[in-house]
Design a protein that fits this description.
- The structure is a homodimer of 300-residue chains.
- By secondary structure, chain A is mainly α.
- The first copy, chain A, is built from 14 helices and two strands; from the N terminus they run H-H-H-H-E-E-H-H-H-H-H-H-H-H-H-H.
- Chain A has a two-stranded antiparallel sheet with strand order 1-2.
- In chain A, helix 1 crosses helix 4, helix 3 packs across helix 9 and helix 4 runs antiparallel to helix 9.
- The two termini of chain A are 25 Å apart.
């Protein structure tokens, strides 16, 4: 099986970044009324930054099933909107209190806290508006399933629940199973639904998604371990946000529980496992395979 | 046409309050893990309080079209979850900075700011999860349309956009058309979709919803003027929240722009107009008619 090298993956990441930016540009056009500042804040946080890992997962999976690009990119943009809203709220003073995100001032620093809260809430609602719109898919069953799965991944059974666990981790000791569960909710759920969305758009029934779910599960954990390593070993200027905050807060992470050597090894093992879950797919899944390796490599 | 008196309406409000509380009790069951505090915060804000005006609008409209109670109550609870999330976020220190809501400490006072932000976000996502769930309606077209309309009403083209305008109103003078537009977004959109949801569940096509939309539009404005009057003339202990904050902030409101006499008159006129929009319905719409009068009366 021919592996897709970093070059096609890099091109795919640039392409999806451009596509998502273009969609945000249109869908977040600034209105000529008192809501202008709200839209400017959404645009500040959403446009021109980030790895666009989740959108690429959506379109790369959708491509496996011949989904129209228009449908895939709309769903990808909606899921990225959820991710951006979560970053805006996570960065708030009452949460992680971060000043820098994607190399720019965070939303509440560039605007103000109230506008940042509302910009997050607005992107959250817009994501579901975009998913439920007939333009995303002609079949209402597909639209309703997309909404259901993305809402589950975003809410207290997913991302928001993981974030709440993260707050609790500052107050109580977390062991490896607890940190794993926390991360599966906090970042794994949205990564999982990004892969699942491609299959939903392609009308793949749930029983046909087992391999993809396994891939997303292992990819999500590998991603988080790589994030921990990046947090400990990375360069703030290159990463574009404040680092080493978890260690300073004394919070349990994969890194603090495994140590750097086992963390690196575990990250590579998970990426290999993720790829193994794609064994029933041919070269058409090479982009997903390359993504798994990229997730491990990005901490180097 | 026989008017339904306050007694049946009062009973209907108590009944829907009980039904919504029961559903929140089940759907927000506290998990036995580190998310317990998040769920407790959601329950604190969602259960046992509020007029449940929006849920009653959903079920009263759904009843016009013979919608199953189970479907109507699920949609009603989802829309109330959106309302509750907006109250939690509006009360935050960076927004209206309120300590009291529905006679209880606000979410961030009873818990903490981070938990309150996440509880709002969680209810927001849960609302769409509940709407998109097959249990809400067997027809995916209905579920997708419900999500689409509720997301539009909640997002920057509705509630969140109105809230952003409200922030701007502290910085610039708003005239009557601007305040009207602000309130149509901030409270009118969610009241409107509460009525619309009943019709969507009843598979009434958009062209058959004109009367109901007119009703909801006028009811929403009447509700807001009554709210302004209550804010100026009401008793804090009875209302259960801090009052007279708009006047103190020098913000333009219907009351400040119209004065009390014209505000009272306009409120009654709008309620009468709202009722007039229901002329094609018989006694089955008496509860909606009584609601319009109740909205005016509650400021007395």
């Amino acid at each position: 099986m021919a592996a897709v090298g970093l070059l096609p993956l890099t091109r795919a990441l640039v392409d999806i970044g451009t596509a998502v930016d273009r969609r945000f540009e249109t869908m977040l056009a600034v209105p000529g009324d008192a809501r202008a500042r709200l839209y400017q804040c959404m645009r500040h946080a959403a446009i021109g930054g980030g790895k666009r890992l989740r959108p690429l997962l959506v379109v790369a999976t959708a491509d496996l099933f011949g989904v129209e690009r228009e449908c895939a990119e709309r769903a990808a943009t909606a899921i990225e909107a959820i991710h951006v809203y979560s970053l805006i709220h996570d960065d708030l003073p009452a949460m992680d209190d971060d000043d820098l995100r994607r190399g720019k001032p965070t939303a509440h620093k560039a605007f103000d806290e109230a506008t940042a809260i509302l910009a997050g809430d607005s992107l959250h609602a817009l994501a579901f508006e975009w998913l439920a719109d007939p333009a995303t898919h002609a079949d209402p069953f597909v639209r309703a399933e997309l909404v259901l799965e993305v809402a589950r991944a975003a809410g207290p059974g997913g991302m928001a629940g993981g974030q709440a666990m993260d707050l609790a981790a500052e107050r109580m000791p977390f062991d490896l199973p607890a940190v794993t569960r926390l991360q599966q909710l906090k970042t794994g759920a949205l990564i999982g639904v990004s892969v699942e969305a491609g299959a939903i758009l392609g009308r793949v029934p749930p029983e046909g998604r087992t391999g993809l779910r396994g891939y997303a599960h292992d990819l999500g954990l590998a991603f988080q371990i790589a994030d921990d390593l990046l947090d400990a070993e990375g360069d703030e200027a290159a990463v574009g946000k404040a680092l080493r905050k978890d260690a300073d807060a004394g919070k349990a992470t994969f890194l603090s529980l495994l140590g750097p050597e086992r963390a690196h090894a575990q990250c590579e093992l998970l990426a290999a496992q993720a790829v193994e879950h794609l064994r029933s797919y041919g070269t058409e899944a090479d982009l997903l395979r390359a993504l798994a390796h990229y997730v491990v490599e990005r901490d180097r």
